[in-house]
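Sync notes, pocket subgroup
Present: LS, DG
LS reminded everyone that the earlier model was apo-only. Rerun requested with S-adenosylmethionine included. Inputs:
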Amino acid sequence: MEEKGAENGVAAMAACYQGFDPAAYLQTNYTPPLADLERKDSTVPWKLACLHRAFTEGDVSGELLVDIGSGPTLYQVMSGCEVFNKVLLTDFLEVNRQELRSWLQDEGGCSLDWTPYLQHVCKLEGRLPSAWTEKAARLRQVIVDIVPIDVHRPQPLALDVLPAAGADCLVSSYCLESVSPDLAAFTRALGNIGRLLWPHGHLLLIGTLGMSYYLGAPGVKIPTVPLNEAQVCASLKESGYTLIRLEVYTVPQDIKLFDDASAVFFVKAMKE
Ligand code: SAM
């Protein structure tokens, strides 16, 4: 009975995602005013700074980085691509995988110009903004594939996608709480993706706190699970991760436009 309820919740989320529009999502969430690279208190520079710090501390590197629920975005792997030889992008929806392929193939037709993001990350790395072309080339070189994923399955990726040892590191941004009908599903999803990671591999997780919905397209309200810090910590522990660091950013009132999140968290954790 309980199992059936969980399945129904997950199926309802999958149905909501049929209305997701990559171009509208990018326009809403990754251009000003919500994503203002010039504004220090905007969400995106905070996320980029957290990722930059995590990927340059020295303990996170290796062969394979897997991005869980990439959506149509690339910012979350712009620091990691410098310390991993291979980056695997994943998403549930073909429209998002297609958006990422458009950028990868560099033949035009992308819904967003990622140049300002690449320039911003170059600056964080102490490079000239003009080095963005090298970073774009590096990213295109290390992305090995863009594949389907379902974090609600005990085995989220097709069996032959990862090497037997698993990934060295997972990064995931705004995915798990945005696709889970409740806290139990969020915790299960954390456990499911953990199976892709080798023991002592790292998880870098970005998510929202207190968010009950966001817009996947104009008029397409996607319900999400509102989390608090204590729940995130408890779910990580229950799913077999050791928390290294949790940072919280409070969303300024004037940029709360398209969802009701109160804050954003960044987690650095290690699989036990
Ligand atoms: N990572 C991007 C970002 O930082 O903006 C996109 C996040 S978007 C809020 C949530 C993403 O989760 C969407 O791209 C959606 O297609 C994907 N998704 C939906 N259901 C999923 C599932 N069951 N497993 C994995 N990803 C899923």
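DG: The longest helix spans residues 2-16.
LS: The chain has one domain: 2-271.
Action: DG to write up.
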